[in-house]
Amino acid sequence: MKQGKVYIFTGDGKGKTSSALGTVMRAVGNKMRVGWVAWYKQESWKLSEIISLKKLGVEVYLMGKGFRIKEGKKKLIEGSMVVDGTSEKEHIEVARKALEKANELLGKVDVLVLDEVNNAVNEELIDVADLVSLILKRGNTHLILTGRDVDEKVVGLADLVTECRKVKHPYDKGELAVKGLDF
Predict the structure, then answer these.
(1) Measured CA distances, 91 to 107, 118, 130, 139 (Å)
(2) For 2, which DSSP code?
(3) Which of the four, 52, 100, 129, 143, has the lowest number of CB atoms within 10 Å?
(4) How many CB atoms sit inside 10 A of residue 29's CB?
(5) How far is the C-alpha of 169 from the C-alpha of 29, rounded, in Å?
């Protein structure tokens, strides 16, 4: 029995989730069943890619409560999605539920995207050992992991690792994301 591939899209530049979306488009075009579990994103954000994924028949699970901003560094940016009013305990709880959902989907979908799971490991919302366990149990399910600062243990298990490197970004000038291009 052949195991599913493990693809990682990481780095500090734009394109990690976009790369996952492109791969999902190919999978859907080949009549593969696809699941998408997101660690930070939430339904209330009305993200364009999620609307598109649902139209394509992708099983989408937005498990997050927003991007985590550590205590002492909390900031509210009006009109932005980077608003964190969630407790540390709640961030950990929803991250663990996302991992449980991902484990449930193994073997039920052909391709499973773990959107921003690398961030969740790096921020210690989930343990790297639990992600490694999921990867080892994947069977025929192909996994796509996105997010910054991927752990070297996870890199060691990957078949493909692509790093998206930021050269220039509108955020550097204080410009917010553009609907339809960035979300």
Answers:
(1) 27, 15, 17, 29
(2) P
(3) 129
(4) 9
(5) 31
Instruction: Give per-residue pLDDT as tens, 123-160.
Output: 999 999 999 999 999 999 999 999 999 999 999 999 99
Q: Where are the alpha helices (DSSP H) in 6-151?
A: 16-29, 48-55, 88-105, 117-122, 128-136
Angle of the 128-136 helix axis to the 88-105 helix axis, nearest 10: 10
- Burial classification of residue 78, based on how many CB atoms lie within 10 Å of its CB (0-12 exposed, 13-18 middle, 19 or more buried): exposed
Model confidence, pTM: 0.89
Q: Which of 131, 169, 170, 168 lies closest to 149 in space, CA to CA?
A: 131
* % residues pLDDT > 70 (the chain): 90
H-run or E-run covering 157: helix 152-157
**Residue 106 and residue 108: Cα distance in Å, rounded?**
5
The CATH classification number of 6-173 equals 3.40.50.300
Cα(93)–Cα(6) distance, integer angstroms: 25
Residues sharing a CB contact under 8 Å with residue 140, sequence separation 6 or more, in sequence order:
1, 2, 3, 4, 107, 110
Ranges of each domain in the chain: 6-173
**8 phi and psi, to 5 degrees?**
-125, 130
